[in-house]
Amino acid sequence: MNVPGSGKCSTYKMKIDVAVDGAAVKGLFQQEVRAERNFQAMLGTDGAIKTTAVVGGGGTMDVIGQIKEGASKIKLDGYCIFEGKLTKQ
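Below the sequence we write its predicted structure tokens.
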């Protein structure tokens, strides 16, 4: 069983791409050697993001973040916690 904060979580690599079009947010994420997953959300107050993404085996991950000039960040919280800063490209 793999729970957030367990020994295996720190070895996993996750790629996360987020696109913003007005207030619409679309994201793709993929853990190394796993299927690509996606999420959609609308920007909330102060650029907040909060939604749920479906992952394998019927599980889910909470998607929490903020889109703000110079301080954008994302966090996927489920079987493990993946978080980091977002950079504009």
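The chain is about 0% helix and 50% strand.
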